[in-house]
Amino acid sequence: MKFAQHLSAHITPEWRKQYINYEEMKVMLRLARESFPDGDPAFEGKIQQFEDDFFKYCNQELKKINTFFQEKLAEATRKHCSLQGELQYVKGLQAKQGKSRIPLPTFRPPGRKIGELKLAFSEFYLSLVILQNYQDLNFTGFRKILKKHDKMLKTEIGAKWREERVDTAQFYVDKSIDSLLADTETIYTEELESGDRQRAMKRLRVPPLGQVKPQEWTTFKVGLFFGAFIVLFIIVVLAGLWRRETISWNIFFRLYRGPFWIVLFVFFIAGNVSGWRRNGVNHVLIFELDPRSSLTDQHLFELAGLFGVLWCLSVLCFLYADILTVPPYVNPLMLIVIMIAFLFNPSRTFLHGARFWLLR
Question: For residues 335 and 307, is the Cβ–Cβ distance under 8 A?
Fold first, then answer.
């Protein structure tokens, strides 16, 4: 993937204008290359004018990035101090509650408050990772565009400018984000997870904000479920034709069209996510999803395939209810119950984070 596409796929949407304008710089270089043929007698004068304009633009972009980074770093520092103060306040209330036999009237249930703090620290950690990503993308953008500049114009001015300006820029040399990340990890581990670092990092760690690599086991399940769904759907069609005289189709469509639309809806969502991924659109950042619990296109295809298989099995049981000696209307009821139970299952299984994000 070219860097322009990579940058477009990984930027934070609301910060779009605060990133390096890599595309504009690339256009400037391309036009300069086309406008200044090597045999032009006025080549030296034209190239000097272009260099002045290009590096003036680079300087403006660098100033913009430095200013925005300092603002966001100041916000992160204030947020960090605020969260620490709130944590100490809650810990103090817990200590007083433990010593006092009389419940404190202003004290909120510690479990609920600690849970809110865990979520706040987790969101703060994610914001730090995004800001760190902002640093990396902009530095890489300057490095690549200046390297392209030197290659196209056969000079080393770009490399020197990078060493003097970019390598010493505030947004690049400031490592406060690393310190805030480490401090947040320590606080979360010691204060909120009772020293269990493995559990703390499981809650805090953010997957790379890039393209998700396909998982072999998930790929296998997608193929299995969709293969079974296609076979079962063909059997459903043939069974429907075979027993068309014994089934009230008006009732059948009323009972099963709702669950089928759910299957189709999940499948189309999976198709959208797959298309976004293939074209470099980072929907996780665009829709402000939590990368820790967001679903990939594979997970959505797996879910659509599973629901499709359940739908087909329920339809077959409905069509042959007389042979199975099962009341026919139990089958669509059980299908709806299974789908609802999957969505509202409180245990931390079956994509718990993504399911409860949807419910909220």
Answer: no
CB 62 within 8 A of CB 18: no
Cβ(97)–Cβ(108) under 8 Å? Answer: no
Structure tokens at 315: 């339809």
Read off the tokens for 256.
Answer: 């099963």
Q: What is the pLDDT of residues 103-125, one digit of tens each?
A: 544 444 444 477 788 888 988 99
- Give the list of residues 6+ apart from residue 211 with CB closer than 8 angstroms, or none: 1, 9, 277
Separation of alpha carbons 74 and 348, rounded Å: 36
Residue 93 exposed, middle or buried by CB count within 10 Å (0-12, 13-18, 19+): middle
**196 is written with which tokens?**
């269990």
What is the average pLDDT across 277-291?
A: 66
**Residue 156: count of CB within 10 angstroms of its CB:** 10
87, 113 in Cβ contact below 8 A?
no
Q: Please, which residues have CB within 8 angstroms of residue 125's CB and are 6 or more apart in sequence?
A: 181, 184, 185, 188, 204, 206
Predicted confidence (pLDDT) at residue 69 exceeds the cutoff of 80: yes
Nearest to 30 by CA among 168, 209, 136, 153: 153
Tokens 């390096």 belong to 20
Chain centroid to Cα 44, Å, comes to: 48
165 Cβ contact partners less than 8 Å away, ≥ 6 residues apart? 58, 59, 62
Identify how many contiguous H helices and E strands the chain contains and give both numbers. 15, 0
Which residue shows structure tokens 């972009």? Answer: 61
Higher pLDDT, 172 or 346: 172
pLDDT tens-digit profile of 320-358?
Answer: 888 888 888 899 999 999 988 888 888 877 777 667 766
**Which residue carries 């009821």 as its tokens?**
333
Query: So what's the pLDDT on residue 42?
Result: 53
Do the beta carbons of residue 218 and residue 238 sit within 8 Å?
no
